């Protein structure tokens, strides 16, 4: 199938391309993920917890729980 055909079908199905991460969002995640985790960062950024976890994984950031242990 052509790229145009795929785009048209996606449009007809109401599908949207995933939102790209802005430099500001990445910076926020780098500075806050280890301390606050996916749930709080997702709320602040307006993204799903899964999206935040995946981006943190790609950026090699780990959540540090309250006991100071990394997950």
Structure description:
The chain is an all-alpha fold and 71 residues long. 61% of the residues lie in helices and 0% in strands. It is built from three helices and no strands. It has helices at 3-12, 23-45, 49-58. α2 (23-45) runs antiparallel to α3 (49-58). The mean pLDDT is 89.
Distance between the termini: 43 Å
Largest sheet: none
Average pLDDT for all residues: 89
Backbone CA Rg: 16 Å
Roughly how much helix do the residues carry, as a percent range?
55-70%
> H/E series, N to C?
HHH
Number of helices: 3
Uncertain spans, ≥5 residues at pLDDT below 50?
none
Which range does the strand content fall in? under 5%
Q: Which structural class matches the secondary elements?
A: mainly alpha
Number of strands: 0
């Amino acid at each position: 199938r052509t790229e145009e055909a795929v785009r048209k079908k996606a449009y007809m199905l109401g599908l949207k391309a995933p939102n790209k991460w802005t430099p500001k969002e990445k910076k926020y995640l780098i500075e806050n993920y280890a301390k606050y985790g996916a749930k709080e960062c997702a709320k602040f950024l307006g993204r799903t917890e899964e999206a935040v976890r995946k981006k943190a994984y790609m950026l090699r950031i780990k959540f540090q729980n309250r006991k100071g242990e990394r997950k």
